[in-house]
């Protein structure tokens, strides 16, 4: 079965962009387009569909930048971060696998899903993206079979992805750099990050 038939994408839209003047990261413009459009364009060919992970509702402004995407809101209070978004998305995803990425990582590899699926070799575990020895737990492939465990962790107020993975068998998959030695999972948090991302986008064509 082809990878897009197996995997639903999840773009984690959270993040207030405080170090970027409290801008909405999803709509932060890079090379003439919002970050959401960049991430969506790279993720869509790899998945059967894309969910936009938000906290509560009211993100209709985002949908035009990711055609065919569906909002999925976690409703845990107080806000409990990416693990709560995974819980909400796994409940509604039509397939058995969910590929999560953050909205502020515009250079995710075009073969991300393919390589994560291949590394698992049929085992139902999370597959986590790694570059230069650094794991990126928000860029990962998650099996639906983990839903109950994720819910229990959140019920116990264990909301951190890194903590969850320390107690969950998983596979780490190493990816090479992109141009100029830039991490393919580089995320934009500061004006300096945005300037670097603009330079890389010019060199790679987006």
Describe the structure.
The protein has 206 residues and is of the alpha/beta class. The protein has helices spanning 3-6, 35-43, 82-92, 112-120, 147-155, 161-166, 191-204; strands at 7-12, 29-30, 33-34, 50-55, 70-74, 97-102, 127-131, 134-143, 171-174. Helix 3 runs antiparallel to helix 5. The chain is globular and about 45 Å long. It starts with a helix and ends with a helix. The model has no long low-confidence stretch (mean pLDDT 88).
What key phrases describe this protein's structure?
206 residues, alpha/beta, Spore Coat Polysaccharide Biosynthesis Protein SpsA, Chain A, two-stranded antiparallel sheet, 7 helices, 30% helix, globular
Q: Which SSEs are present, and which pair or pack?
A:
Elements: H1 3-6, E1 7-12, E2 29-30, E3 33-34, H2 35-43, E4 50-55, E5 70-74, H3 82-92, E6 97-102, H4 112-120, E7 127-131, E8 134-143, H5 147-155, H6 161-166, E9 171-174, H7 191-204
Parallel strand pairs: 1-4, 1-6, 4-5, 7-9
Antiparallel strand pairs: 2-3, 6-8, 7-8
Helix pairs in contact: 3-5
């Amino acid at each position: 079965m082809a990878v897009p038939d197996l995997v639903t994408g999840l773009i984690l839209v959270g993040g207030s962009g405080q170090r970027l003047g409290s801008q909405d990261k999803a709509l932060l413009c890079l090379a003439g387009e919002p970050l959401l459009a960049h991430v969506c364009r790279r993720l869509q060919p790899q998945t059967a569909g894309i969910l936009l992970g938000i906290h509560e509702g009211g993100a209709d402004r985002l949908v035009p930048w990711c055609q065919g995407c569906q909002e999925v809101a976690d409703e845990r209070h107080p806000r409990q971060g990416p693990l709560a978004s995974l819980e909400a998305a796994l409940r509604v995803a039509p397939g058995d696998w969910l590929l999560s990425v953050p909205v502020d990582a515009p250079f995710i590899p075009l073969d991300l899903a393919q390589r994560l699926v291949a590394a698992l070799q049929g085992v139902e575990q999370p597959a986590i993206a790694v570059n230069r020895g650094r794991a990126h737990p928000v860029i990962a492939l998650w099996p639906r079979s983990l839903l109950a465990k994720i819910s229990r962790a959140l019920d116990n107020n264990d909301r951190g992805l890194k903590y969850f993975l320390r107690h969950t068998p998983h596979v780490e998959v190493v990816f090479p750099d992109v141009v100029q030695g830039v991490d393919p999972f580089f995320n934009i948090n500061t004006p300096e990050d945005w300037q670097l991302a603009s330079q890389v986008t010019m060199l790679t064509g987006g």
